[in-house]
């Protein structure tokens, strides 16, 4: 059992969604002595939490919408290997989100967003440790650092504001010249001439197994896992009495919405119209790769991450706006393989059937790069914990603790005001 903290009374709490966020929240709620039921409609850890790049990066305080991002968009869209694509049919639906995204990218706003993200991402490796230790799964997380690499000085200088935001928030890094970079990470191509090393960052070698292991420990410690789809809330006199699922109504005094990219309708039903959309992302995983980096590497010029996983080398990234229903566009994943070969010249020119697997998942994304963490407007018994975009794995443990604090009526360890559902 994770070390117990004080709690005043035992309540039944239903957590909707068994991704990294829901599983972490359920674990901390159980630690508080609540009766916790985790409701998951497909498999634990099989949503966005399955195929991400595994990075546990306190350095990810830099928002997605930055001053100047808009100017780069046409170039990204025209490049078939570019990091961004939009299904044009989806544009009318996406337009309000995109407008907010652009509006979020001012100098003043990105500074405020980075300040808000800092405590949620702080020592992300250390935040996961109690959950991972309790699960006996310490082998799944490492603190080997993180490397960002650039082909040109101009690309590096283009990210100057991002490094300033990190400095302003006390995040240390070393800039490596070409010869230092190639020595630090021998697997990469010498076309990359500048590197930035974050020594305090961590990663998991298997995000899905990480989430499943913590969920198994939750169940072992007395938590309940229900394989069902949640549909909505049952309330009496303004208080929550249950969660409607396709397995019937689950009685509950409190609930947490952690359904990732699928959370919007739950919030809307409680009076919170939050602009949640999805940035779809892809990965390819090469089993038994010919070469593997010592730590995760972000190719900042091509915008993808390569992570050494226990199952192979994962190349993950891209942002695709196409909503929740359109089928995957697998060439987006295949491009990652092309980009990976540019970064790692040691990779084979082709792979036989079965050596490379492909995946697509739905990042739950808010236009201001800040998740929604807070109480529902029309029902204080329901807490939201969704919308973590590109950093949900890194932020999961601290978010889970904050949610347990909210449900217990304690003051969370970091300020939740920037994450309020009513901020729009
Ligand atoms: C390519 C890619 C790379 C990424 N790399 C990183 C990274 O390196 N580091 C990082 O921190 N983040 C990364 N992310 C982001 C990270 O994966 C997400 O932010 C995180 O997984 C979100 O977790 P979640 O629990 O909110 O959502 P999910 O993992 O999607 O979980 C939500 C769960 O809710 C369930 N659900 C939905 N609706 C219902 C319902 N009605 N009833 C019951 N269950 C329901 C779903 O089945 C799902 O299991 C990456 C994402 C992608 C796509």
TrEMBL record:
GO terms for cellular component: cytoplasm. One of its GO terms (molecular function) is oxidoreductase activity. It is an enzyme of class 1 (oxidoreductase). Its EC number is 1.4.99.1. The chain crosses the membrane at residues 12-30. InterPro entries: FAD-dep_OxRdtase, FAD/NAD-bd_sf. Keywords: Membrane, Oxidoreductase, Transmembrane, Transmembrane helix. Residues 13-406 form the FAD dependent oxidoreductase domain. This is D-amino-acid dehydrogenase. The lineage of its organism: Bacteria, Pseudomonadati, Pseudomonadota, Alphaproteobacteria, Hyphomicrobiales.
């Amino acid at each position: 059992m994770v070390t117990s903290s004080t709690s005043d009374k035992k309540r039944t709490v239903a957590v909707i969604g068994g991704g990294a966020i829901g599983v972490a929240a359920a674990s901390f709620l159980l630690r508080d002595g609540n009766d916790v039921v985790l409701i998951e409609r497909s498999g634990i850890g099989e949503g966005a939490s399955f195929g991400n790049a595994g990075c546990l990066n306190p350095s990810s305080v830099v928002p997605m919408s930055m001053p100047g991002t808009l100017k780069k968009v046409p170039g990204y869209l025209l490049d078939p290997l570019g990091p961004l694509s939009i299904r044009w049919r989806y544009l009318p639906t996406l337009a309000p989100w995109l407008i907010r995204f652009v509006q979020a990218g001012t100098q003043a706003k990105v500074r405020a967003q980075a300040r808000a993200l800092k405590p949620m991402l702080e020592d992300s490796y250390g935040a996961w440790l109690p959950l991972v230790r309790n699960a006996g799964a310490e082998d799944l997380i490492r603190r080997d650092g993180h490397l960002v690499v650039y082909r040109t000085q101009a690309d590096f200088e283009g990210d100057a504001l991002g490094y300033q935001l990190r400095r302003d928030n006390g995040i240390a890094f070393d800039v490596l010249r070409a010869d230092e970079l190639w020595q630090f990470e021998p697997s990469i191509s010498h076309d990359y001439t500048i590197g930035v090393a974050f020594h305090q960052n961590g990663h998991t070698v298997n995000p899905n197994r990480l989430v499943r292991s913590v969920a198994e420990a939750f169940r072992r410690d007395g938590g309940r896992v229900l394989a069902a789809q949640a549909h909505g809330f049952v309330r009496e006199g303004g208080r929550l009495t249950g969660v409607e699922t396709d397995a019937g109504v689950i009685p509950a005094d409190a609930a947490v919405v952690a359904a990732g990219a699928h959370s919007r309708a739950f919030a809307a039903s409680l009076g919170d119209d939050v602009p949640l959309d999805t940035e779809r992302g892809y990965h390819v995983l090469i089993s038994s790769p010919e070469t593997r980096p010592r730590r995760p590497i972000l190719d900042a010029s091509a915008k993808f991450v390569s992570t050494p996983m226990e199952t192979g080398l994962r190349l993950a990234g891209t942002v695709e706006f196409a909503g929740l229903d359109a089928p995957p566009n697998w060439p987006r994943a295949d491009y990652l393989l092309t980009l990976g070969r540019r970064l790692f010249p040691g990779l084979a020119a082709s792979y036989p059937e079965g050596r490379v697997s492909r995946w697509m998942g739905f990042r739950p994304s808010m236009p201001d790069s800040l998740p929604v963490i807070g109480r529902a407007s029309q029902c204080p018994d329901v807490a939201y914990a969704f919308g973590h975009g590109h950093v949900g794995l890194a932020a999961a443990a601290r978010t889970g603790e904050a949610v347990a604090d909210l449900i217990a009526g304690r003051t969370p360890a970091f300020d939740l005001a920037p994450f309020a559902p009513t901020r729009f």
